Amino acid sequence: LVLKSGKTAAGTAASSSHTGALAGSDAAYRTLFKQAGIIRVDGLESLLAALEVFSKNPLPTGKRVAILTNAGGLGVMAADACVEQGLELATLSPTTIESLKSFLPAAANSHNPIDVLGDAQADRYERAIEIVLADPNTDMLLTIITPQAMTEALLTAQAIFDARERFPMKPLIVSLSGGAMLEEASVFLKKHAVSALSSPEAAALALGHLAEVSEARRHFSNTPFVCTDIDTLSARAKVDQVMQEGRTQLSETECLELLAAYGFRALTQRVTHSAEEALAAAQSIGKPTALKIISPDITHKSDAGGVLLHVDPHQAGAAYETLIATVADRVPEAKIDGALVVEMAAEGGTELILGLKKEPGLGTLVMLGLGGIFVEVFKDVSFRFAESLTREDAAAMLRELKGFPLLDGTRGKTGIDKDALIEAIGRLARLAVDFPEIAELDINPLLAFRDGRDFRVLDARIRLEK
């Protein structure tokens, strides 16, 4: 469990004045905690509640929670809070429901959340708790006690303790929603190591944390990526050359060559410096091409008019001249080094973005998201740290995307080879580890298809630092 301050820009600024490089961006810390299996709490009260529950309960075998209350409104609030924490309301077995109906008043609710009514005394609580905990569909129990005219709070607390002794493998939390009026019951539960919190919402949050840890442990595995076809030597030569020339930004051609050393495929392309070279390059490719400006001063080529698509091979010379003129007019201060003539990508692919970003004091983040021109609009991305990335981490990155259904295929659109995408994430993480000089990297878009052999890098940018 961790409580970390500095979530907002103001908080981070305040902490950085004391801890310097130790204060990274909050998104990076969220990623770090997730990848390491650490539960982050949002405040001191939540931390204390989580510590209370973790120290007095086993981990549940599932995330199905039963709620038992003598106040219907609080039962509904507890149900809402549990669902919001990713828990499931236990579906009680028919036998359990019939057993509850056999002694509960007709006005009581025998379905989850179970309302034993405001006139419930300790014996009614005791029988209901025993029956619900015995149900195999119940992984954990939240019992709510409010101080009403006939409530026997201390005796009920004693019954809860007895039930906990008989069912030690199921987490049991009590919400004492009554302040000083339930102080005696609170003291008893604390003395007998039964978790008691002041509200159903706090109890639901703590149960959610318990279930989250249990789920993570059940599915934990640590499968590393193994890449045997990486050409580290040629990649090192490329990076060293750029650094020796005093540059930090790789050209697009250099980016693609570096990525190719790590198994990323690009489209057939030619670097051209004149209309004549562009025409010859397009005709050698022999199919419709795209022309993309080459400039160290232009990051977003489309915005600068630096991309022409579906150019007929016989019109590539004229297209080259149009491209250069357009960019020179829109970005007159930019240095132009020619144009790439690139074969047009196959139709029907899914545009993704892969990236790397250094976080001082923490490591290098690997990013996956839906790519193309909308990545900055929708911000549907997922992160993990490269230094300890496993195949399971990469697979989880896919599932975290809101657009994950698109990867499976939806509304007539074919899906993609998810195993190939996981492999690509692993290769990018390996690149980050091998080359700590890489401060930032974008592959946008990576065009993905149902067959991983058809994946292609359409554009990339890499920035180095000493």
- Helix tally equals 17
Q: What's the multimeric state?
A: single chain
The main sheet comes to: 6 strands, parallel
The assigned structural class equals alpha/beta
Q: Please bin the fraction of helical residues.
A: 40-55%
Q: Can you count the beta strands?
A: 18
What is the averaged pLDDT score? 90
What portion of the residues fall into strands of 2 or more residues?
Answer: 15-25%
Report on this structure.
This protein is of the alpha/beta class. The chain has 17 helices and 18 strands. Strands 1, 2, 3, 4, 5 and 6 form a six-stranded parallel β-sheet that branches. Strands 11, 12, 13, 16, 17 and 18 form a six-stranded antiparallel β-sheet that branches. Strand 14 and strand 15 form a beta hairpin. Helix 3 (44-56) crosses helix 9 and helix 12 (275-285) packs across helix 13. The longest helix has 19 residues, at 200-218. The protein is elongated, with a radius of gyration of 30 Å. The two termini are 36 Å apart. The model is unreliable at 14-23 (pLDDT under 50).
Briefly characterize the structure.
This protein is α/β, with parallel strands linked by helices and 466 residues long.
Write the layout of secondary structure elements.
Layout: H1 9-19, H2 26-36, H3 44-56, E1 64-69, H4 72-84, E2 88-89, H5 94-101, E3 114-115, H6 122-134, E4 140-145, H7 153-166, E5 172-176, H8 183-191, E6 195-197, H9 200-218, H10 232-244, H11 252-260, E7 269-272, H12 275-285, E8 289-293, E9 307-311, H13 316-330, E10 339-343, E11 350-359, E12 363-370, H14 375-378, E13 381-385, H15 391-400, H16 404-408, E14 409-410, E15 413-414, H17 418-434, E16 438-448, E17 456-457, E18 460-464
Parallel strand pairs: 1-2, 1-3, 1-4, 4-5, 5-6
Antiparallel strand pairs: 7-10, 8-9, 8-10, 11-12, 11-16, 12-13, 14-15, 16-17, 16-18
Helix pairs in contact: 3-9, 4-9, 6-7, 7-8, 10-11, 12-13, 15-17
